[in-house]
Here is the input.
Amino acid sequence: MHLSPTLFGEEFITGGGERFVTELARAMSRLVPTRLVSFSESAGERSRLHDCPGSGPATGWRATAGLDVQLFKPLAFVRGQKTNPLSFRFLRALADADVIHCHQFHVLATTLALAYGRLRGKRLFVTDLGGGGWDLSYHFDLGRWVDGFLHISEFSAQQADARYRRKSHVIYAGVAVEKFRPTGHPKRPVVLFVGRLLPHKGINYLIEAMDPQTELRIIGRPWEPHLAATRSEEYLALLRRLATGKNVRFIFDADDDQLVEEYSTALVTVLPSVYTDVFGQTRPAPELLGLTLLESLACGTPVIATRVGGMPEVVEEGVTGFLVPPNNVRALAERIAWIKNHPGEAQRMGERGRRHVEEKFTWDQVARRALEIYQHALAATGSR
Here is the structure.
């Protein structure tokens, strides 16, 4: 049983973290009976679930045979946090589960699931996807109840509470390689960014790095549950000012099909995330992995990323793309120019990137890694 605290449905925008839960559950359902539990203000509307690209806008969610999806209407949201729903009814969906896998640690739904699972003798696992809100886990050591923390990168594992290191496992994240694949259409002179339009994504530095002739396409939405609306609007306004006189196009409504086409035909995808943003705000873990990088590589397009968070675990320097220092406009500009001026080598980088994803970052591989860890916990239970 996978528990995702983030709302599903028209009322919410999902991103890489929500993609992780749905794709892992979908892949796992092809191997073992699997249930996905989440929340919706329109409870019971399973046909309106949403599945979106890395951090882009939502599109139609396609169910998988064998995956049981159950949604529950929240009673409220803890301190108004839309990613922190309050519900008790969802616990009934845990009753017949052997394994409960909670996605996000510091949310009330996870705390309730851990307490319930502990009382019922379930095997308990947690994946921290970089979100959270007000929760009792900040005040009590709930990690002692968890059988394993399944991280999406070595970087994420290093950020974990030292008390839980012996329970840590890295399973990484994946890409639906049957969907995200080269289209065969020719490359266009376009640089691509995909992600939420947030200050820690460093998009302002990318715009500054662009020459006036080359087109930059920015796909995503300005959204963050814990970011004040005024700051989100301020950042978007800053991006628009920086784009003045340059060939920059903002796309707020791309679906998966368009996203695959954009990835496949772009020269390069750039993820310029930073630890300290243009407003002086610091985030110790701005990118736990960098799912949009994997999606781009799966589509045969090389990537440029900053040496931030888990992204160096995705990008093979000089092989599938380049890594540059964060907050460095000049370094971004130089690597973009190199990609433009070396189309043959850039194409080979993309081809190597596709093979790299197929070898290490498919959802089937991630699901099997998680299942192996579950099985060890279940076997230990049976031996006692």
The chain is about 35% helix and 20% strand. The mean pLDDT is 88.
